[in-house]
Amino acid sequence: HPVNIPRREKDFQGMLEYKKEDELKLVKNLILELKPRGVAVNLIPGLPAYILFMCLRHADYNNDDQKVRTLLTSTINSIKKILKKRGDDFETVSFWLANTCRFLHCLKQYSGDEAFMKHNTQRQNEHSLSNFDLAEYRQVISDLAIQIYQQLIKCMENILQPMIVSGMLEHETIQGVSGVKPTGLRKRTSSIADEGTYTLDSILRQLGAFHSTMCQHGTDPELIKQVVKQQFYIIGAVTLNNLLLRKDMCSWSKGMQIRYNVSQLEEWLRDKGLMTCGAKETLEPLIQAAQLLQVKKKTDEDAEAICSMCLALTTAQIVKVLNLYTPVNEFEERVSVSFIRTIQTRLRDRCESPQLLMDTKMIYPVTFPFSPSSLALETIQIPSSLNLAFLTRV
Amino acid sequence: PRSRPRVLLKAPTLAEMEEMNISEEEESP
């Protein structure tokens, strides 16, 4: 066994040497068998991406195009394979989205292209790829990141979906505003029956769990913003669609409850420093529907106010809410047919789709803004828990 | 400053890689 003499970090060049025959072992141990919830919890964020890039640098340094190609292909295929196998596990998908993006950023940061070198230290510039231009592979990896992002959104949607109607519409946290329940309200009165139902708190806790997982994995802040905007869109769209289909959700008190719930979601955004990510704006149709439940709906002036307020709702949606509106007590009345006709006349000239329900499957296009890292590759050490002792620091 | 330009490595598309991957997956049970 050779004696391991510790070398000073400045003597390393930020590369990892491996034998061709160890490539399968590398992707197996680092990608296929790595458990984001186990070993990976204590890793520096993006470590698998840095390790793979440092291996790639060594193949590039040796001018071995075949080794570069097979490593990139094995890496991409292994990431796809693990996502096929564990694609319904949010932590796995988030972990590989963060690492795929980090790998993509490394390919840019060390590409030698001046546009990506602006923030590099001199030492980092010395670590640029020497022999190969991997621009085409960067495109493939960017496509892979888009696929992983879409999978992350689906995964998150599967978790959130069952909570939304219960937490945003059915569960009442404001006591005593309902008065007489509108007919058809399916509120359970027994506290035992309430156990196991989702509340707004369940949604907020889940959003917090998604957020902290992504932060822990070193996901780019710009990407987190896009995920959160998409989450809020889904919450808003599913809530509004259910409101548009359920008479028992169209009352003054439900409007109050929804506005309170929206304020709590906004509070969550503020707490996470995400007020400018566009998430709040995705709730606008829901906010306006809640306001519509609460405003007066009688005179021509009321009709005018409604038409200038509900710009994020389609005519079909406005008319549907007015038709479904159900008084909760004897002081209120149903919306008159003539009032609804007035609204329809006023909105006749609007250019819009006749769409009633929102598309809950819509996904905003994602971008991965370049995010260079200040980490010095030569300082990276590989924890023994990764079982990569066959890699040699160079 | 570099003395010579880097060599562009042609890459298959993600879809092409997927096709390549099918034969690979058939091997595993």
Quote the average pLDDT of chain B. 72
Strand order of the largest sheet of chain A: 1-3
- Alpha-carbon distance between the two ends of chain B: 51 Å
Helicity level of chain A, as a percent range? 55-70%
What is the count of β-strands of chain B? 1
Mean pLDDT of chain A: 93
Tell me the overall shape of chain B: rod-shaped
Low-confidence runs of at least 5 consecutive residues of chain A: 187-193
Number of strands of chain A: 3
- Radius of gyration of chain A, taken over Cα atoms and rounded to an integer in Å: 27 Å
Class of secondary structure makeup of chain A = mainly alpha
Unreliable stretches of chain B (pLDDT < 50, length at least 5) are none
Largest sheet of chain A, in brief, is: 2 strands, antiparallel
Work out the strand percent of chain B: 5-15%
- Tell me the greatest interface: A-B, 24 and 17 residues
Radius of gyration of chain B from CA coordinates: 16 Å
Q: How much helicity do the residues of chain B have?
A: 40-55%
For the sheet with most strands of chain B, the description reads: none
Structural write-up:
- The complex is a heterodimer of chains A (394) and B (29).
- Chain A is 55% helix and 2% strand.
- With 394 residues, chain A is an all-alpha fold.
- Chain A has a two-stranded antiparallel ribbon.
- Residues 187-193 of chain A have low confidence and may be disordered.
- Chain B has 29 residues and is mainly alpha-helical.
- Chain B has one helix at 14-27; one strand at residues 7-8.
- The termini of chain B are far apart.
- The mean pLDDT of chain B is 72.
- The A-B interface holds A 65, 68-69, 72-73, 76-77, 80-81, 112, 129-137, 139-140, 143-144, 147 and B 2, 5-14, 17-18, 20-21, 24-25.
- Strand 2 (132-133) of chain A pairs parallel with strand 1 (7-8) of chain B.
